[in-house]
Amino acid sequence: MTQDTAHLHVNPFIPDSLLATTQPPKAEDVDDSMIEMCQKRKRLALDPGRLQSDFVEVKMIGSGAFGVVLHCINRLDGCAYAIKKSKVPVIGCAYEKSFLNEVWAHAVLGKHNNVVRYFSAWTEDYHLLIQYELCDGGSLQARAQTQCLGESELKIVLLHVIEGLRYIHSNNLVHMDLKPENIFLSMNPNARRLQIEEDEELNSVYGGLRPLENLVTYKIGDLGHVTSLVDPRVNEGDCRYLAKEILNGNYSNLFSADIFSLGITLFEVANRMPLPKNGQMWHSLRDGKVPYLSTLSKEFNDLMAQMMHPDPDLRPTSQSIISPSIVIKCNQHIDLELTMEKRKNEVLLNRLQKAKEQVKLFEEKEKNRMGQTEQLPAKSIFWKWFKK
Predict the structure, then answer these.
(1) Which pLDDT score, from 0 to 100, does residue 96 have?
(2) How far is CA 296 from the centre of its chain?
(3) Residues contacting 11, CB < 8 A, separation 6+
(4) Is 384 annotated as a binding residue?
(5) Fewer beta carbons within 10 Å, N or C terminal of the chain?
(6) Which residue, of 322, 339, 358, is where some domain finishes?
(7) Which domain range does residue 294 map to?
(8) Which of 102, 133, 164 is the last residue of a domain?
(9) 298-322 burial string, b = 16+ CB within 10 Å, else e?
């Protein structure tokens, strides 16, 4: 090992085909003692003041046990990003592997529409910072706490997250900590209410349509527990969403463990009740005794129960879950978006027609009152009416 490569991290998730002879040794060629030695020889920050010099902090948008998430604006490109920063110095601490794991997994996965996009990572004073795309809709957990998601929306969550899982699994990686707070929402820019601050009348038009404009893209984030299927080193995630076989040390079907986590996530969001951390209910949910939710169809209840099947080999795969009925519902969601746009146009046209009629009526009244035959300027009257 050369002096230069001794200062490089060994990313255990990089496929063999992407490793070049000039890069660090392959993960399987490096024993644990060598990895430990390399990890102790950390570089200090490549750019110690990058957060302050390259970004403007807008506000804190999240906080966990080990880190905070900041809404930041890049000074150069003017775009908004989410930057995750460790609360304490992670270099050499017990949480170091989790933070590095997240960076390694994101770097290997690259870009996918249903996985939170990763841009870069660096250290400052032994704190690790990770730059992500800003998911402006918050988390699924936050959304479920304020809104009741119907079956149609739950199917969109299912479809989007399954697409993200399929991509992660196709890279021989397993998430291992899928839950509502790790699923993020990116608002569809085409479905946002127009910000016409100078025109309260048009604002009221779009304000009335807001219930139909909650179209979002759901994305998987927080890859701190990701492990490789080739060489699994399982770091158990949240016990509320963890499959029973994982706690029993059975790692023979890790893909299926992610399916279980998604199934119980959907159940929690639909049921609007927090999941237990232990006790009889915890075991019942893992023994095939999933309560039937009357607010959902039998089809969707059966699907959730199958995803939470006690036998991991009998759970559906990410491919089989995307059945024709689910895809049809997704297409219906797209149709809803088109219908929403048509309704916007119809409402605006109706509003415009009424405005013209009001202007005409106003002009006639003015003529009668003033006894004038000359037509008043339509534009000035139009805006005068709108400002009322």
Answers:
(1) 79
(2) 24
(3) 27, 104, 107, 108
(4) no
(5) C
(6) 322
(7) 140-322
(8) 133
(9) eebbebbbbbbbeebeebbebeebb
